[in-house]
Amino acid sequence: MTFFQKFSQKNLRNQLLQSHLALAGLGVLLLLVALGAIFWMNTIAVKVVNKTQPTMESIDQVYIQIQKSQTLLRDWMEFADPRFVEQRRAVWTEKIYPSLARFQALIFSDSKEIQNLLNEIKDHLVQYQMLQDQIEGLAHSEENEPARYLFEHEVAPLSKRLNHNIDLMLSEERKRAGGKDTLISSTLLDFSHYFVYGWSILDAYLHDARPAKEEMFKQSIEIIESYLSRLQKFSLTQRQRVALRRVKKDFAAYKLAAKGAMFNRVQPSWNRTFQLITKVHRPLDEALENRLQALTDIMTQRMQADRKTVVQIGWLAKASGVFLIGLMILLATLLSLRSAKKIALPIMELTQAARRFAAGDLQESLPEKGEGEVTDLTEAFNRMRLS
Asked: pLDDT tens digit string along 155-165?
């Protein structure tokens, strides 16, 4: 006889075995349901965490790298080092745009508000990069700051040449006077002193265009011209006279170049990069920052909602566990009561019948209830009653 044939026999042993197996099967089923629910809730929580945090990091990375590109642009404008140009362009191609693409890949949002913000941010970023490229190209060109360009390419060379001729005249005078100071050498030194002073005033004026510095420069020109007139009255050597003619010629060109530089400095377009930064770059920077902040606010709200979801999932997991444990206890109790009733009731009836038989009551036969050994025992009692 096989195991399944033995197991299918209806006897007390098999009934008890089937009852215990049913309880064990119920426990396993509820455990599987509980594990499945916990796995599902854990999966949702992990998705929430793994999606929200990288999304916020992508937004922050875009903003941080934009600030870095601004710093590199300022460094290029100040130091004119080509490495800053390469680094700024690498920031755009390797950091800003990939971070934005990563954010868009993570968000998967049907929200029109978010999609509109993303489109606006993309447009602003393209404009921002193009503007930085334009400022970068203008920063050290003639078109950027005409006054400064004129100062560096015309005023400065004229100043250098003029000082060279003054030094020649002074060297010639000291040679002629045997190293002693003369009225001519003192005049030349005063001329050189006021010329350097006027040149420094002009340089400072090109930075801030203050009217007071303009007046100081004009006064220095008048003083220099008075020294130049005094030098023409002295008895000079042939070499000194040749050098003086060069000084007069260079000084006249110097005054015209300085006047042109000062005129360009007070024009509205005196510095094109400055204009682009103040009138275009800053408003665009503020608009871009506002869009990124708006997107950050939305994602912060979502992150807070996701945190609440994770907390709710935790509570749901606990409640589900308690519910399933309670359900398992209830079902196990009901199943045990049913099995006990099915097995114990016929035995109790047999016990009562045996007591009646012992008291001499043989009138009533026992109903054949139950299965297996209980039925055999009932039949035996009935045969005993009839014998």
From this structure: 999 999 999 99
In this structure, the number of other CB atoms found within 10 A of the CB of residue 67 comes to 12
Domain ranges for the chain: 3-140+274-329, 166-267
The residue behind tokens 């949002």 is 109
Q: Give the global pTM.
A: 0.55
Indicate the CATH number of 3-140+274-329 among 3.40.50, 1.10.600, 1.10.150, 1.20.120. Answer: 1.20.120
Secondary element (H or E) of residue 71? helix 12-79
* DSSP labels, 271-286: -HHHHIIIIIIHHHHH
- φ and ψ at residue 332, rounded to 5 degrees: -65, -40
The C-alpha atoms of residue 47 and residue 41 are separated, in whole angstroms, by: 10
Region class of 177: left (phi > 0), else alpha (psi between -120 and 50), else beta: alpha
User: Model confidence over 229-265: pLDDT tens digits?
Assistant: 999 999 899 999 999 999 999 999 999 999 999 998 8
pLDDT in the model for residue 385: 67
Residues 6+ apart with CB under 8 A from 63: 289, 292
Q: Residue 332: CB partners within 8 Å, gap ≥ 6? A: 23, 26, 27
- Give the pLDDT confidence score for residue 7 in this predicted structure: 45
CA distance 232 to 248: 10
Q: If you average pLDDT over every residue of the chain, what do you get?
A: 82
Could you write out the three-class secondary structure of 90-146?
HHHHHHHHHHHHHHHHHHCCCCHHHHHHHHHHHHHHHHHHHHHHHHHHHCCCCCCCH
Sign of the torsion formed by the C-alpha atoms of 71, 73, 75 and 78: negative
